[in-house]
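2024-03-11 09:14:02 INFO worker-7 job=invfold-0412 stage=load source=structure_tokens
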């Protein structure tokens, strides 16, 4: 008597998104230089389709919108004085858009389906070095 062979079902979309997000996170962590990112003026770095785009986030910054084409469509990043946000994106869950305004060093918005990562680095002028804690305590 032979045993039935168990076969695994083909991967789902969620599995593919998880793998892609891990690959983006791994590539980003290799690319990011921990010490150098905090130096210099506050700026937004957007990685999209293998290229990097930087925009200053000064308080006297004129409002503008940047468009980035990705695998699933067009993502629009809104730049305002001292802050930036993902204004529109073609992804289904809109997590990148719901990240809200990015205004402090370390703030990140990522659109995994469209392969876009926006990260704030540097520090505001006349702002002393500060230690930021990422977490919740009770």
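2024-03-11 09:14:09 INFO worker-7 stage=emit residues=138
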């Amino acid at each position: 008597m032979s045993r039935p062979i168990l076969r695994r079902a083909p991967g789902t979309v969620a599995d593919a998104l998880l793998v892609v997000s891990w690959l983006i996170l791994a590539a980003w962590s290799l690319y990011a230089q921990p010490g150098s990112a905090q130096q210099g003026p506050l700026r937004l770095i957007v990685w999209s389709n293998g290229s990097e785009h930087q925009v200053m986030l000064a308080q006297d910054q004129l409002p503008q919108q940047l468009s980035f084409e990705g695998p699933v469509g067009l993502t629009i990043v809104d730049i305002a004085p001292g802050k930036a946000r993902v204004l529109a994106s073609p992804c289904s869950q809109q997590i990148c858009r719901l990240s809200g305004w990015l205004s402090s060093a370390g703030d990140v918005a990522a659109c995994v389906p469209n392969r876009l990562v926006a990260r704030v680095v540097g520090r505001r002028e006349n702002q002393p070095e500060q230690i930021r804690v990422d977490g919740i305590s009770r």
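2024-03-11 09:14:09 INFO worker-7 stage=report msg="The mean pLDDT is 81."
2024-03-11 09:14:10 INFO worker-7 job finished
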